[in-house]
Amino acid sequence: MTATAEQAGTRSERQTVRVVLVDDETLVRVGLRLILGADPAIDVVGEAGDGLEAIDVVRRTAPDVVLMDIRMPRLDGLGATERLLTEQPDSRVVILTTFDTDEMVLGALRLGAAGFLLKDTPPAEIVRHVLDAGAGRTTLSPSVTDRLIASVTQRPRDERRTAARARLDALTERERDVARAIGRGLSNAEIASELFITVATVKTHISRILEKMPADNRTHIAICVHEAGDV
């Protein structure tokens, strides 16, 4: 059973962030369960040892966050992420892996992953990143952020800024307000509070922004805002 719109809409109101762990190494899953389970704001509701099993577990548990490894048997993390987000676009997939090649980082973000962390991230930081993802924020390890910035800075700065501003100019003033808030890392609930609108209205604005820019996900909106210098 897929997560319903009602389930997705109430995630920000829950007491805990529900998490599914996906990794082909049992010891890694045990360690993550111990790290995350120690925080009262996190509830580990399921585990999977490969991408195909992950899809089944997510369907059954409707978690807020899926912590996903990349290199796994049968179906890897990128393939599983693509299928999960096609089925359940409100899911928040955070990649947690040993590998941080440009292709993997950009590939995951293009698919709509909500974050990309390395396995050498300190435990307390993993907890913080999971909570941030559960709150609707995009979350990246510092080294991954550096790679992402490098990937979008290959064109001359003036050219990037002009192109980004042109994309923002296609938006209404309210849509630009929402885009700027996304660029600052705010969740839907935080945007609604700041702009004195409902979360449903925020989601409507985001859908229109994605269509008009065009952009594939919130990360791409944030990149555009930063390139335009409009934060």
From TrEMBL:
It comes from the Bacteria. The keyword Magnesium does not apply. It holds the Pfam family GerE. Residues 18-134 form the Response regulatory domain. Keywords: DNA-binding, Phosphoprotein, Transcription, Transcription regulation. Residues 164-229 form the HTH luxR-type domain. The modification 4-aspartylphosphate is found at residue 69. InterPro entries: CheY-like_superfamily, NreC/VraR/RcsB-like_REC, Sig_transdc_resp-reg_C-effctor, Sig_transdc_resp-reg_receiver, Tscrpt_reg_LuxR_C, WalR-like. The keyword Phosphoprotein applies. PROSITE patterns: HTH_LUXR_1, HTH_LUXR_2, RESPONSE_REGULATORY. This is Response regulator transcription factor. It comes from Cellulomonas wangleii.
